[in-house]
Design goal:
Layout lengths: L2 H13 L1 H6 L2 E5 L4 E6 L13 H23 L3 E12 L6 E6 L3 H13 L3 E10 L5 E13 L2
Antiparallel strand pairs: 1-2, 2-4, 3-6, 4-5, 5-6
Length: 151
Amino acid sequence: MSSKARKFNAFTFFKLPAAWWAGVRLRHLDSEKAVVTVIHSWRNQNPFKSMYWAVQGMAAELTTGALFIDQIKKSGRQISMLVANNNANFSKKATGKITFTCTDGGKIQEAIERTIETGEGQTIWMKSVGMNEEGVVVSTFNFEWTIRLKR
């Protein structure tokens, strides 16, 4: 785990405590990709003995949000970000260690540049896929992020 991921996990303890207590942890972050893991346990399960859908959503959203936070910080500008919409598909019970990956980081830089150039807000969709230890997709989340310059 990189020092960037360690710092981000400390951030979740203070700013996203529900995700931290549920076991959501950032494992990798670069300009293109973010990887988050969460292990199914009694703290994050539903009555059907699998991972609660909202915990999966927190892990998936963190992959997309961490990419945004990192690139906004690199821009040096005051830019706000907000999830405007999302949807999800659940294809298998989530048990064991689930790894969520988002590889849509390349979309962010262009949106930030357009926001800075035009002063207008931008909207982009990003996808995060959750896989179990066998490599089987358990859930897929799509998040519509909006960004705009702070005034």
